[in-house]
Every structure is written in C-alpha cells, then in structure tokens.
TrEMBL record:
Official protein name in the record: D-alanine-D-alanine ligase
GO-annotated cellular components: cytoplasm
GO biological process: SOS response
Pfam families: RimK
Superkingdom of the organism of origin: Bacteria
Keyword annotations of the record: ATP-binding, Ligase, Nucleotide-binding
Residues that span the membrane, as ranges: none
This protein's record includes keyword ATP-binding: yes
Residues in ATP-grasp domain copies: 101-353
Species this chain originates from: Salisediminibacterium halotolerans
C-alpha cells in the first residue's frame, strides 16, 4: 500500500518532550500527563503498593507503570493504559484466547472459526480434529502476545505438522483458526465509542536503486529510533525475514529498484517493525459497532483494544475480532507512523473524570519530567511519590540575550534561583554564547518582579529584547538549561580539539625545526672534517 506522511500530530503533545518514557511507560506517561495538566493530583506508586495488590499487573518492578489520579473526591488507579474500571476478570478473559472466543461467540460477535489443539495427542488425532477447518490456517498460543509463536498461512498438512514439531516443546495447547484474508486493525474503545483506529502494516522497506535490503532496514531503524512509539520496536533480521526473502528469490544484499516496496513479514505487530496507519475517519459504522459490541460482551471491559481483520474497512465488509486487549498500547494511536494522531489519553481521563473535560479546553503545554518524579521509588526512599501541582495562571515572556557567560557554576546557580522563585522556562545559547534565547513563565506578579531584578544583572548575559509570549510554548515544569550546557560543551569540545590539533602541529613544527638544525650542524661538521 502507498503510505503518506502524517497529516497532523496533536498540538499539545510534542514528541521531543516525551522521549524519556519508552515502551509501555509511554502509555503511563501520556495518561498521567493529561490528568496532571487538568489539575488532578498525580501520584506514582511502587510495585506491590495498595491497592495494586488487588489489581492484575506484571513486569511492574521498575517504577513508572503504576500511578493514580485524584480530584480530591475520587481517586483512580492505573497500570499502564488500563484504569481500575477494567476488572481483573476482563483482563483474564483477554489473556485467554479460548475464553475470549467463547465469550464473543456467545454474544454473536464474529470471530474466526477455530479449535484448541491438544499437542499431547497423536498426529492422526490432531489431523482429525482440524479437518473441520479449511486451509490456510493460523496457529497461535492461547495466552501469547507480540506475535510470538504465531504461525500464519499454513497451507498444507506437511506445513501444519512442521509447525507442530516446532512448538510442541513450548506448550501443550494452542489455538488453531482458519486464516482470515485482509488487513489487521487495532480499534481502541472507551465506553460506547471507538476513539482510535489504526491499520497495522507489516514491516517493509522501499528501494532507492542504490542501497541493499540490509542497508534499507538499517536506515529505517535509524528513523524509527527518532519516533516516540517506535524507538523500541526496531526491525530485527531473523529467520522469518530470511524466509520471506528466500521465497521471493531475494537476499539482504539485493538492491531494490527505486520506489519498489518490499514487505518483510506476514505478521503486522508494531513490536516486530510494523507501521501504524491512522484510519479512524475511514472506518465503516458496521466495523465500529462490532468493536463496541465486542467490548460490551466481555464483562468489565470498560476500555481497551479490539483487534480485528477485514478486507475492506470502509465499505461494510465483515470484520472478525481476533483478540481483546484490556492493557493495549496507546502510543501508536497518539503517534501513528502515518495519518492523524488521536487523543486517546484525553478520552480515558474523560471517562474517569468527566467533570474535568472543561479543563481540556484550556490547552496546556507544560510537561513534568518523567524520570525525576520516579527517583524516590527507584531509590527505595518512598513507596509513592506525588508530582508537583500543575502551574495555573502563568504568563510568559521571551528574551533575546547575548554575550552569555561561560561559567557553568553561575548558570547552575541561576537555575536554582529560578526554581526557588517558582519560575519555569529555559535558557538556550548558540554561537558559543554570543546569542541565546530565554523563555520565562510564572504568575504575573512574580514575572514582573523578576524582570525588574534581571535588568540589573549583567554577569550572566545582556538582554537585547523582551517580548510577551503565548502559553503555547512546550516547556518542562523546571528551568531547563540543557540547551545552554549542550551548546557550551560542544564549543568546549571544539576548542579542545582545536587546541589538541594546534599542539600536535606545534610539536611537528618543533621536530621539523630540530631536524633542520641537526642537518645544518652535520653539514658544518662535515665541511670542517673535509677541510
């Protein structure tokens, strides 16, 4: 398929400001940030804390996946993207593909035809149980995820038993289904609404007539590392990719013609290098209705991902549900590879705190620093850590400055003083400190007081111009000097490199001069000897 570049991201979410939260942590950060910006009290919790002991979680030893939001009257607890309105029963159903299929079938939700394989049975018994299904087939674990141990397009009995031999030592039971032709979609349902829909496209590369397949994969991975959702979902060259290339008569050394697309996998999982293409506006009403019906069929499934397959998502072709994920990743919906980002975090916070919807209208561009808030939990000093309250009623100014100091101690002291005064913003420098810019935000009173003070200060920088700035600047809830420090470190590196180069040149010159003196002296000695 032809993919186009993203048409529009979410104005209030800059990918450059969420880079600290990676993988599953991105889900937590996005929802926590949305709630925090609305004035809700944000608290991070350590693994095993109350009430998370009674909530089904996993791999939560590292802080950053468990948090709560409170409006003072109500408090809700979250594990990654899943809030406490989603019951443990719904989680268990979603983790068991056999149970999911039974529940959905009972509710009249379309699912692929399939059976559970008992791998302890003989080949004859297995074949007899599968004969009710039609090739091609799909075999997948009952409780797996991320596309692991999923085998698609099994076309023959020989192929079927080769797969059985491969998986027989992993588990005794697997799901076997008829392969459904079409593309895979992840719809995210909140209550009665489908709030996002992405088409999952298998990992692929596009030729340029110059680079090999291996280099194209490397190039694509470089691009993915810059993406907030995809940076940990790189394309890994494995047996599946090698098999796909072999079937097509290609290799990693093949140079693809300019513009020719090459699909590298049959599985479309984002974690395996797939792409997420936003398609919410194109989705048929029938497909949305099926997704909502599936969510309602599972008791306690207040919100989560519904995975579906259809050959045509626009014109009402039948769509079947293949999985239910109550703890679904939302990063691909917020930051799709292609198309429009969808504000799933806002929809989730709306669901739990409907009275805060009006706060959403007052767009907030402030970010808390993710890692800083987790330090008390990581060091074991505390079992929970409260985030500072979001600033309200802040105004801002933008300053153009010049002749910035190169004394780091002065700049670090300046940052400390800004934080003590309740002033946030940033200081950045360029041209080795010749020029720079500073954005400062605080209450009108504190801002006015600070401006009077700073005009008397000349040991840090000189002020060229002061402008009023709108509250649309993306800022961390701190006074950020990293742009200043990075620039000066770069300058220092250049100066150090230049000094080292000059030192080497001076040494070479000295050696050359010394050799010349020795040569001249030898000439004089030779002349005296000859005489």
């Amino acid at each position: 398929m032809t993919l186009t570049k993203p048409s529009r991201g979410l104005a209030h979410l800059d990918p450059n400001f969420v880079h600290e939260a990676q993988g599953d942590e991105l889900c937590s950060y996005l929802i926590a940030l949305e709630g925090w910006r609305r004035g809700l009290k944000l608290t991070w919790h350590a693994a095993g804390s109350e009430p998370f002991r009674s909530i089904k979680t996993w791999y939560d030893e590292r802080p950053g996946k468990l948090f709560s939001l409170s409006d003072g009257d109500n408090e809700h607890f979250y594990f990654r993207s899943r809030g406490d309105a989603v019951t443990d029963s719904a989680v268990e159903t979603g983790m068991d593909k056999e149970k999911t299929k039974t529940v959905l079938q009972t509710a009249g939700v379309p699912v692929p035809k399939g059976i559970v394989l008992d791998l302890t049975k003989s080949q004859e018994e297995l074949q007899k149980s599968v004969e009710a299904l039609s090739f091609p087939l799909v075999i997948k674990p009952l409780d797996g995820s991320f596309g692991k141990d999923v085998f698609t397009r099994i076309e023959s009995w020989d192929h079927f038993f080769r797969v059985i031999d491969q998986i027989s030592e992993t588990a005794n039971t697997y799901m076997c289904e008829e392969f459904v032709f079409g593309s895979e979609y992840r719809l995210y349902v909140v209550g009665n609404e489908v709030v996002s829909a992405i088409k999952r496209v298998p990992a692929s590369v596009e030729g340029d007539g110059k680079l090999t397949v291996a280099r194209l994969i490397e190039q694509k991975n470089t691009d993915r590392k810059q993406h907030p959702r995809l940076k940990n979902c790189l394309i890994t060259i494995d047996d599946e990719i090698q098999e796909v290339l072999d079937k097509k008569g290609l290799s990693l050394k093949t140079v693809l013609p300019d513009g020719e697309a090459l699909s590298l996998r049959s599985k479309s999982n984002i974690s395996l290098g797939g792409e997420a293409v936003d398609c919410l506006d194109e989705l048929s009403g029938e497909m949305k209705k099926t997704a909502v019906n599936a969510a309602h069929a599972v008791d306690g499934f207040a919100h989560g991902g519904v995975d579906m397959i259809t050959e045509d998502h626009q014109n009402g072709a039948e769509a079947v549900v293949i999985e239910m994920n109550p703890t679904a990743q939302i990063g691909s919906s917020v930051f799709p590879s292609y198309g429009r980002g969808r504000d799933v975090p806002a929809k989730i916070v709306d669901y739990y705190f409907p009275k805060t919807r009006k706060m959403k209208e007052q767009e907030n561009y402030m970010y808390f620093i993710y890692k800083d808030g987790l330090i008390p939990l990581e060091t074991g000093v505390a079992r929970k850590a409260e985030a500072p309250d979001v600033p309200r009623g802040f105004k801002g100014v933008e300053l153009k400055v010049k002749n910035l100091t190169n004394k780091m101690t002065n700049i670090y002291y300046f940052k400390q003083q800004m934080m003590k005064k309740g002033i946030v913003g940033y200081l950045r420098s360029a041209d080795g400190g010749k020029h720079g810019e500073m954005v400062v935000m605080s209450t009108p009173e504190k801002l006015s007081e600070w401006l009077d003070e700073i005009k008397e200060t000349d040991y840090l920088f000189e002020i060229e111009r002061v402008d009023v700035t709108h509250n649309t600047k993306h800022l961390y809830h701190t006074f950020d000097i990293s742009g200043y420090v990075t620039n000066w470190k770069g300058v220092l590196r250049e100066q150090t490199a230049a000094a080292r180069k000059n030192k080497i040149l001076n040494m070479m010159t000295s050696v050359y001069q010394l050799k010349s003196k020795i040569k001249i002296k030898r000439m004089f000695i030779k002349e005296e000897t000859d005489a």
